[in-house]
Write a structure and sequence with these properties.
InterPro entries: AAA+_ATPase (IPR003593), ABC_transporter-like_ATP-bd (IPR003439), ABC_transporter-like_CS (IPR017871), Metal_Ion_Import_ABC (IPR050153), P-loop_NTPase (IPR027417). With 251 residues, this protein is an alpha/beta fold. Helices cover 40% and strands 23% of the residues. The chain has a domain of 129 residues: 3-Layer(aba) Sandwich (Rossmann fold), CATH 3.40.50.300. It binds adenosine-5'-triphosphate.
Amino acid sequence: MTLAPIRFNDVSIAYDRHLAVRHLSGSFAPGSLTAIAGPNGAGKSTLLKALMGELRVAAGSIDRGGLRVRDVGYLPQAVDIDRRFPLTVADTVMLGAWRETGAFGSIAAAAALRARKALTAVGLEGFERRHIGSLSAGQFQRVLFARLLLQDAKVIVLDEPFTAIDARTTRDLLEIVRRWHGDGRTVIAVLHDFEQVRTHFPQTLLLARGAVDWGPTETALSPANLLRARAMAESWEEETPVKARRAGERS
Ligand SMILES: Nc1ncnc2c1ncn2[C@@H]1O[C@H](COP(=O)(O)OP(=O)(O)OP(=O)(O)O)[C@@H](O)[C@H]1O
């Protein structure tokens, strides 16, 4: 599996004129397993959305190493996924194979077989006909991992995949992440649990709008870096009132 790095070249991303990510440079090496960690509002989801082409960069550039966005396996945050569609578990997993079957084409028997295997791999054998709206949060996350298995992407991007997921499901899904890494795929995951990051993710981007550190996890999550990230978060929380106070002082 040959891949080029995914490079961020001095990337800034804005909502209106508010910069959510500032001057980020660095790269995800092919086959790397990287956590993106940082305080609330640090720009982690924003970064993934820009990587997935959902947001345009305000400045700088993202080089996806020749990959098309549709070739990346992407799992958005659970809150961004609508489960009210009248889809079965099998239909949802099959969406991972749309490149082979065509969005409206007849479903290839081979892909259907792979879907069943993927469901077995995530511990949901026999769930094919269940409606996705009837699943628990953990079961639904397993379905979405089965869909990623079917998609067979070389780069996999996960946004808080284990939030509100129980310990057993998390352990099973982390095992799938470990296998993806073993296959040589590039995996990037936004995570909040530092212990999980330290145990399972060799590389970390510690983000606080800008990069605090990006490299081996042990170094990136050093106490000094975590303090810096917290201080940066406090400074952007205070940004608006400080400006207002200064304006007031001058008048
Ligand atoms: N659609 C939007 N419109 C305007 N501002 C937004 C939008 N989405 C996010 N933001 C702002 O951009 C900043 C970064 O948000 P983002 O969701 O990327 O952070 P995050 O690091 O993923 O946070 P969390 O850990 O809380 O999920 C925040 O200040 C947020 O309020």
